[in-house]
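Late entry, written up from scratch paper. The run itself happened at the end of the previous shift, but nothing got recorded in the book at the time, so transcribing now.
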Amino acid sequence: MSDIAHLQTEDFHATANFRGTDIAIALVGTVDQGAVEALERFLEKVHTAATSRPVGEAAVDMRKLEFMNSSGFKLLVAWIAKIQGLDPGARYRLQFVSNPELHWQKRSLRSLQYFAVDLVSIVT
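Output as recorded:
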């Protein structure tokens, strides 16, 4: 695995690594107003890496993500929109791995899936 990006704030941390032709991302902790700007930069690095070489899927492990505010989810929507803006052959899929015990994830991730049914899948 080769490192793409790493983010550490007081209450949140994230990592992204290439895993073959896919990207493995882990989000841990709480995304509140203090982490939004850092998360935006992190997602930009991930997207840049994903478009620098062929990537099939970015798997986002959210099982240890306790909370994400609406500004954080807005960044995920913007990320999906960037992927949709790519040429069809350059697009990659997003798979969100959720924690079934955190009910907010089910509701919020379902909204993301409706936004881009062809690009987003959810696994519990």
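Residues 2-123 form a domain with the Transcription Regulator spoIIAA fold (CATH 3.30.750.24).
(Scratch paper discarded after transcription.)
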